[in-house]
Amino acid sequence: MENTISNKTNDKVRLILVDDHKLFRCGIKSLFETSNGVCVIAEASNGKEGISKIIAQNPDVVLLDLELGDINGLDLIDKVHSQKPNVKFVILTSHVNEHVINKAMKMGIYGYILKDINAEFLDMIVKSVSTGAMWIDKKVVQILRELNPNVVPATQISRSSFKSTHANLTAREYEVLKLVVDGKSNQQIAAALNISEHTSKAHVCNIIQKLVVDDRTQAAVKAIREGIV
After folding, report:
1. Most CB atoms closer than 10 Å: which of 36, 97, 139, 206?
2. What is the pTM assigned to this prediction?
């Protein structure tokens, strides 16, 4: 059994990791050790251990895999929800399955993301989820559109329509926004568009302001919900 991590700070998002692959947990924990807004308070290597630690420590967010060895992630969520209804669950998996995605959404998860996600973006997603935002991987969004055509729009709105609703994003800002949705950092955006990192950061700040959101993660979520990607 993994030891509880005790370096909690009151002003950070309290996160618990649940994944049966130790190497993967170590990588994720290492990522958040450099975060200025997220603190990993515990980790668990299976579902039973995860349930115990979540109930005992009442985290803000739980990042978990679907396959945990003893039980699956959805069963864990089901067992914990009645006792800890305020805990926000984010599934981090390699699997894209229509039945699982639909069931997870009905259970009220706050995120469904794939393990190939950009590390910096994962940090921002956890922070955003802790405030009540939702993040769904764009591959999963497409499946949700197919499963729920009357709920999630199946087609993208026109660029002109999007502009009229969102304070006239420039052509360059659209390019930057699409890269933000792909999880690219400011440095990666700069390299992709052959601009300076300072300029990249300025574009992201402008996008956040124009979309009336708090951070780049919320900008990406809103872009997906509005059909721009």
Report:
1. 206
2. 0.64
